[in-house]
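JOB MANIFEST
job_type = single_chain_structure
chain_count = 1
residues = 335
[input]
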Amino acid sequence: MPLMFLGNTCMLSFREMKDREYIPHGTYLKLLIGGALSLSKVLLSNPGELKKLRTIQGSEERYIRPKRPYELPLFKEGMRCGVTDEKYLRPTLYCNPCAPEVVALAHELGAFQKTDYEFAKAAFEFVKEKLDLEICQMDPVEETIRRGTGTCFHLISVFIALCRCAGIKARYKTFAMNMIQTWYDSMVGSDPLVKKWYDQMGFFMMEGEGEVFIDGKWVPAHVGPTAERQAAGGIPITKFGEGSLGIWFFALPGTTMNMESIPYGLGAGANLLKRIAPGSMERVNISIQHQNKMGKKIIEDAGGKDAYDVMARKKRASQAPTLDLSDKKGIVFEE
């Protein structure tokens, strides 16, 4: 009797789960095991600090989830969903393109009315500017749409689900990454426990972006950061068709992967952090909101998003970013 489980929309066998890439492969398993060992080492070697940091103290700022900046469109019976059983067009883990919330939103954005490029660009702009980053536990894509926040992989899943709903092939591109210094200082440095975890590993677990197949080629869609967060980091506002590597993130050699689905275990780090040190997760989310406020002012002072972006691109062209990984002791991957 085949192993079955309740997926997004149907029961899948072990063979089907493997085919859809729910089952982690070699590189991903190395990252997962390395991350778990690093976090365990940090926790076991800092019991006193963990006890102090695991909760928010009375005088500390508390995280307040930002209000969702959009209304949920109404789902109507008969709305078309372009999902098939073809690879990159079918439902996958946490990403059900035929969920009513996804279908309604896809139609509001012009599914089956716009060209593939126009629709994917509209989906990109919606996710990038309307959804906000929040470090939280993994859950289905429809929950992210209702909530209005999620991790990078929550947001990527919304983009991928919208594109698959519109009949456009979409996939995940993942990698282990180091981040630009300004984000390290404001986000990782916002909590001592998270900082020690990052420094112990030499990278910050998994990051990613979406890719859609249009006119015979895969087009990147870096939906994770809002324009405000990118302005706070002093980098250009990435557009549809621009990837994040070399701008916002730097991938460790040998860790870049293209996948149809989020694999099992991807949210393990956030789940563990939430259970053991919820205060650390809250501090990171507070830092993210501070970045948004800072970036909003930077954009306003520059005269708007377009004016800021022109300025940031000119500055970036005059000074290429550098990254020194010589002191990192994390897992080493070979090409």
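[summary]
The first strand starts at residue 5 and ends at 6.
The radius of gyration is 20 Å.
exit_status = 0
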